[in-house]
Amino acid sequence: MKKRTSLLLLAAGLLLISCTKQEPVSAVIERGLQTATRQALLMAKELENQEDKFPKSVKPDGTLETSDYRWWCSGFFPGELWYLYENNPTPELKKYAEMYTQRVEPAKNLTNTHDLGFMLFCSFGNGYRIAQNPHYKDVLIAGAHSLATRYNPTVCAIKSWDSNKNVWQYPVIIDNMMNLELFTWASKETDNQMFSEMAHSHAMKTIENHFRPDFSSYHVVSYDAITGKAHIKQTHQGLSDESAWARGQAWGLYGYTMMARETGDKEYLEQACHIATFLMNHPNLPEDKIPYWDFNAPAIPDTPRDASAAAIMASALIELSQLDKGALGKQCLELAEQQIRSLSSPEYLAKPETNRYFALMHSTGHLPGNSEVDVPLSYADYYYVEALLRLKLILAH
Ligand code: GLY
Questions:
Q1: How far is 18 from 22, CA to CA, in rounded Å?
Q2: Are 322 and 293 in contact (CB under 8 A)?
Q3: Is this model's pTM higher than 0.85 or not?
Q4: Would you say residue 6 lies in a domain?
Q5: Is the shortest distance between the CB of 247 and ligand 1 below 6 Å?
Q6: Could you give the maximum distance between any two Cα atoms of the chain, in Å?
Q7: Which DSSP string corresponds to 30-85?
Q8: Same domain? 89 vs 200
């Protein structure tokens, strides 16, 4: 009898351990990559015959929303396909990565947008890194020259938007940090220091004006085009001028981490660490570590999440963990892993063949504009896959 009781207790103990044991992170990563691959291939086939279309989101009526190459997100789907091809080099993934990358090419001549880094570096940049197609290099360099037309030496920054001229003379948004990798890359490839100098000036000007004492950031800083001084600090997609719009914080974190990697400059690494500290310790970061759309949203917890902000953050935190080898780097990696586990749970990761073939659910594009609220977004999927691959690479070493 005694023996039976001990056996029962042992079995119960083992059951409890197996129920509470976390899935190994390597299995989480593979599951995420498999789902993303399956969904991306279905999406690629869906739009295969619509020659200038890219997936964007899901409309309120449940149908797929697409864009052409001019939308700032055109590079994300081809970029995601390149990442998935890098992970699993099949001819089919390569065919679609090339097909959708080619669709972005006309963007190289755009001079009315600052988003060329997003559009070209995610698509052609990943494609060039992986496939070494020399034409891709030409496209990227042409794009870098187009982006350089938006740099003003008085302001020492790239102009983000041409609109709203009466209010904002020279608006620069925190998101613009993401375009600088096209410049750091172009500078190395062409030996033209103009690009790296522009990237450096823009990043330093942004440190000077976009950040509050707690290292949260404003969304829009408009400069006086004559004096080069900041004259207005506001929001566009956040709750209020003084709030911390979640994706904006993620762009800043990613941008300075990338600049630290590209330049080895201590100032950028310190900035990235400060932003990471602000985000990791924020009292409104929920238990599953997927931010609400704005850290200061008064309706928290009854307000939408932004899975795209979590994916961007996770990818940046993984990279930062490799640049800061101290306690903060370790904390960054732990938080990123938690975010990846959450994003890869049924709460956020779609069941294959649902979600209009996007991988992630629950992102928020522009809540104050009542646009893209609690929807899939192409950039959430791109940075999710990037984060999965970054973590996979670390685990392999
Ligand atoms: N760059 C625009 C956004 O993050 O929504």
A1: 8
A2: no
A3: yes
A4: no
A5: yes
A6: 90
A7: HHHHHHHHHHHHHHHHHTTTSTT-EEEEE-TTSPEEEE-TTSTTTTHHHHHHHHHH
A8: no
Same domain membership, residue 395 and residue 292: yes
Number of domains in the chain: 3
Q: What is the DSSP letter of 353?
A: T
115 annotated active-site: yes
Judge if 270 and 384 occupy the same domain.
yes
User: Which among 234, 264, 288 is the end of a domain?
Assistant: 234
**Which one of the listed residues 61, 138, 175, 302 is annotated catalytic?**
175
Residues 186 and 281 in one domain: no
Q: In a mutational test of the pocket of ligand 1, which residue from 237, 245, 293, 312 has the highest number of ligand atoms less than 8 Å from its CB?
A: 237
Q: How far is CA 84 from the centre of its chain?
A: 16
Asked whether residue 190 falls in the same domain as residue 268, the answer is no
* For range 327-350, the mean pLDDT: 98
User: Could you tell me if 229 and 288 lie in one domain?
Assistant: no
Q: What is the mean pLDDT of the chain?
A: 95
With b meaning 16 or more CB within 10 Å and e meaning fewer, what string describes 286-300?
eebbbbbbbbbbeee
Confirm whether 204 is domain-assigned: yes
**Helix, strand, coil fractions of the chain, as percent rounded to 5:** 55, 10, 35
Please tell me the predicted confidence (pLDDT) of residue 255.
Answer: 98
CA distance 259 to 264: 8
- Evaluate whether residue 325 is within a structural domain: yes
> How far apart are the CA of 179 and the centre of ligand 1, in A?
12
Q: Indicate if 215 and 282 belong to the same structural domain.
A: no
pLDDT, tens digit, 9 for 90 and up, residues 20-72 = 689 999 999 999 999 999 999 999 999 999 989 999 999 999 999 999 999 99
For residue 92, the enclosing domain spans 71-147
The type of residue at 236 is: H
Q: CATH number of the domain that 318 lies in?
A: 1.50.10.10
Q: Are residues 93 and 111 in the same domain?
A: yes
Q: Please give the share of the chain, as a percent, with pLDDT higher than 70.
A: 94
372 lines ligand 1 (CB under 6 A): no
Query: Phi then psi for 348, rounded to 5 degrees?
Result: -120, -30
Cβ of 175 closer than 6 Å to ligand 1, yes or no, is yes
Give, for ligand 1, the residue of 178, 245, 251 to mutate: max count of ligand atoms closer than 8 Å to Cβ. 251
